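hey can u run this one w/ 4'-deoxy-4'-aminopyridoxal-5'-phosphate bound, need the structure tokens asap thx
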Amino acid sequence: MPLFQKFEALSQARKALLASGADPFNVVLDRMISSTEAIVNGRNMILAGTNNYLGLTFHPECIDAARVALEEQGTGTTGSRMANGTFAGHVALERELADFYQVGSAIVFSTGYLANLGVLSTLAGPDDVILLDADCHASIYDGCRMGEAEVIRFRHNDPTDLDKRLRRLGERATRTLILVEGIYSMLGDRAPLADIAAIKDRYGACLVVDEAHSLGVLGEHGRGLAEEVGVEKSVDLIVGTFSKSLGATGGFCVSRRPELDLIRYASRPYIFTASPSPSVVASTRAALHILSTQPQLRHRLWKSAEYLYQRLKDMGFALGPEPSPVIAALVETKEGGIALWNQLVEQGVYVNLILPPAAPNGGCLLRCSVSAGHTDAQLETICQAFASLS
Ligand code: PMP
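ok here u go:
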């Protein structure tokens, strides 16, 4: 059937991948032991690619909150808030997110992916322009596509290129949405947000920052890069996820602009999907409370991140430009990367294998994400596994 012919190339690529050893896209975690350890294919594995930055997935307060919600409110909401109604937990979580960010409005979405789709597609319509950093996440690209605005990419982390493109837009600069991330998910580098915010202010554009990887990681209170560099007042909207430092699933958008509340009534990815389950909302609320009251988790995370970054750097790995809880070792070829990934798995260390096009220049990334939950001994095992790669 011709319709299915398009899968032929994919099927061949998959066969080649399987021939090279374990299947990196079909790793089954048979049993979780903790936030940083699991049994995978019958063997103990240290999880070094979870995005579980604060290690909260097994925190007793998160688990208790989820359990109580499960018992009192059931397993799911079974529909969208527009149709089925809003659970009290959704409203409470939105209030708590707005308070945490010290803004007026927050909306909760079912995933971070949907938060980007929902916000970007509603905010930027056919007459508007989106200027996005070329390295932005797929959910940002998809949200742009859905909204029908003119989409222009600027060079990754290059404020001069952004400035040039805004200048060219003339009057239309005030109808432009600038999109960047706090910490970029592949190489762990940060946006030059102070420069970008100043440019945005100068042109009267609108700035959206996806803090998926920086919530709970950066800033004195854990609010992310905008807090860290002191530009929160210049950021119009912050998008984020519950699936990383908060250890659950779901997404959100917060803003000091009251119009955010209206996005709810026009956003298809908000309206036409089931709202987050009560247990997910409850564990997220508990995790947000822990994130905002226990800065020691963030300090532990950074100590471990800086340690692992330095150790891998000393071993000669080509890493992203700065220490961060996302630490990616660049490997020049796809085949080389797969072989090294297999060796790490053999030694009981699981990292993310990132292949082209997600990895730059046709290469491959062995992407680690550090967690506050990693023990010193686990970090040592991760280092030793990398040191033994040949
Ligand atoms: N934005 C960024 C920058 C991300 O890295 C991710 C997830 N990898 C998302 C959004 C989507 O988040 P979620 O997993 O909650 O859909």
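The first strand starts at residue 29 and ends at 34. anyway lmk if its weird
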